[in-house]
């Protein structure tokens, strides 16, 4: 069997046995984005994934290596991508998902000890920081696997600090800044009991600033300010899952993803146009299923609805910020060989019509049109199999292909 085929088979087997599709999507993206000795890496789960750390600190050498749902072993299994670059600093926070899997504090601490041992061995000159587990709040009743696990967080932080001291790693106890008087995550910092709103990330940022960027002056009100020379990437999860500033090598490229429903885009476009950015890059998603609104990417998508939504978005930007350049991209195809997207098998002509109408829209409003179909679609008009592991979202190679098609328009 050829080596590429062997590797593909091994990756497929690994995915079946271990982690989520999203884990492998992000991991394959990170494989395309090398770490250097000048970089500061934030390494962790969804709490890390959810922060735009390079924007918070206005530093393109700050790299987000968080993955939603990740566990300590997941970090260990992908640490080599970071460690081979010998980064300047690593900020580590992990463990909430281990707790949700009902792993005890002792076992989590042992796995953490193994991870830190690896980091210290492979990167003796890297400054590693160990951050505490954050509290969560079960009053939101969102994450049932965390019910009754409150003590595990407290026990875990005691053991985490011991592990950090064992390895002479600075310990950052974030817990008190996020906990209420019952040791729950403060309600004003979250909307689901676990993940942070911007106000929560501001607290986190301020606590670690002396270690990341001492003396920095922040924007007085905005955690993620947008300036007149910025390029805003707007779209659903296809946009949001990537690190566009790294992909493009352009620190002024900023991601502002919306939900996977085309109807959401115009409100976001209008909001961000108020900052008068240099460009706004738009990618429409599909419609939700009217019979099941939990299905955001539906084969029952409507051509007219998508076109009308994008027209509203274009008009909103032009009204609010006439000088802002607009780039409109074609809707990205789906691969119907995956059961979840089997309904897309007969939608090829409808998608082609959608993109034809979007191209006309771009011409009507004199905005730049970028057709991604020749880059991402196979001979049947479906998303290339090598670019996806779930039928819709992209692996790293898919993002590289997309980047290569889009970047010339970003630099004009």
How would you portray this structure in words?
- The chain has 412 residues and is an alpha/beta fold.
- It folds into 2 domains: 20-212, 3-Layer(aba) Sandwich (Rossmann fold); 231-410, 3-Layer(aba) Sandwich (Rossmann fold).
- The protein is 43% helix and 11% strand.
- The chain is built from 18 helices and 10 strands.
- It has helices at 3-17, 21-31, 46-49, 53-56, 72-78, 80-83, 96-100, 105-122, 150-166, 175-178, 198-212, 237-240, 244-248, 265-273, 303-320, 348-364, 373-376, 396-410; strands spanning 40-44, 62-66, 89-93, 127-131, 171-172, 231-235, 253-257, 279-283, 325-329, 368-370.
- It has a 5-stranded parallel β-sheet. It has a 5-stranded parallel β-sheet with strand order 7-6-8-9-10, with helices on both faces.
- α5 runs parallel beside α8 (105-122), α14 (265-273) runs parallel beside α15 and α15 (303-320) runs parallel beside α16.
- The longest helix has 18 residues, at 105-122.
- The chain is globular, with a radius of gyration of 22 Å.
- The relative contact order is 0.09.
- Mean pLDDT is 93; it is low at 1-15.
